[in-house]
Amino acid sequence: MHALKRFGTAFGGYKMMDNYPVPECGPDDIILEIKAAAICGADMKHWGVDNGYDDTNCEGQQQSVRGHEFAGEIVKVGENVKDWHVGQRVVSDNSAHVCGVCPACESGDFLCCEHKVNLGFDNNTWGGGFSKYCKVPGEILAIHKHAIWEIPEGVKYEEAAVLDPICNAYKAVAQQSHLIPGQDVVVFGTGPLGLFSVQVAKLMGAVNIVMVGLDDDTKVRFGVAKELGATHCVNGSKEDVVARCTEICGRDNLGLVIECSGANIALKQALEMTRPNAEIVRVGMGFKPLEFSINVITSWNKSIIGHMAYDSTSWRNCIRLLRSGQIKVEPMITNRLGLSQWREGFDAMAKKEAIKVIFTYDYDD
Are the beta carbons of 228 and 206 closer than 8 angstroms? Predict the structure, then answer.
């Protein structure tokens, strides 16, 4: 089968393999045929980066098959598998290995296990969504029963494939913050995490929901943000973000910022605009050291809350919201492409012409 793998060191280097082996099904394993897979922002970190990858010596540098947002159909189960059967439509939470004994695992917060290995993301041999088949190893199913979920009737594969960012946004807004109806929310970052955060904030009764982006976001993403529930969009390339958000919300009403961009300036602005006792949930990741003081979190009792992934409560509730139509994916799917057009999909994401790119396997193996 064909499979899109990452090569090289920390960042950069994708290569489509044209004779990649189909995963073998052990007695406790499940094999999925991928029906839809989406590009994540984490995948974009490796796009167009020159990391010294040597195409002449690729075998010694290859990492894993990519694509950790995917849904598919079970086509094979091991002889010991009792809970799942061939023909079921399922979505993976992308976990493949956890230790099972750390405090995170004990509380069912498996994606915060320090020993986790993710399908389609971390270096592993089980596979990912940017291929035809992927193995869900029996070892994860023995520890984490909800490593996969059945897709309910009426939910499309392409919608289920993006439950990962839906669940991330749900956990950040609904589970980690203390947002209550009648308050306001500012969301930094116009990618899927930000746009799903807008939807969750709307469901929870936020009055003003302000989306903060940049010039590039005005082309496509601001319009979608308003369609999904943003009451205002602020262009940080041209406007004073702190002044504008304070004007819209009023300082007393602004107790929550969901920071999905990972930009240091966004965190600084979030600290400046929020009231005392406010919360800032940091969903996005940045890699540069802070160049400003965060003493304001002490002087005004503000909280910066780190966010990572989701838990089974997130998945259970988000699947119900998706099935009921209260979470919408369709406006965010801007590109549907065959996997053979993977370069086109990544390029559209890099140019911010796309919000969510969905791949389906189109090779004739």
Answer: no
**H-helix or E-strand containing 83?**
none
Tokens 């995490």, located at residue? 193
How many CB atoms neighbour CB 250 within 10 A? 12
- Rounded CA gap, 310 and 170, in Å? 8
Distances (CA, A) of 320 to 159, 259, 315, 317, 327: 12, 25, 9, 5, 9
CA angle (255, 261, 265) in 5-degree steps: 75
The H-or-E segment that residue 296 falls in is helix 296-299
How far is it, in rounded angstroms, from Cα 5 to Cα 85? Answer: 29
Residues of the chain with pLDDT under 50: 50-54, 56
Q: Give the whole-angstrom CA distance, residue 92 versus residue 242.
A: 39
Q: What confidence score (pLDDT) does residue 52 get?
A: 47
Name the 3-class secondary structure at 258. strand
Report helix, strand or coil for 326. Answer: coil
Cβ of 69: how many Cβ atoms within 10 Å? 30
CA 352, CA 217: separation in Å to the nearest integer? Answer: 7
User: What pLDDT was estimated at residue 53?
Assistant: 46
Residues whose CB falls within 8 Å of the CB of residue 48, separated by 6 or more in sequence, listed in order: 12, 346, 350
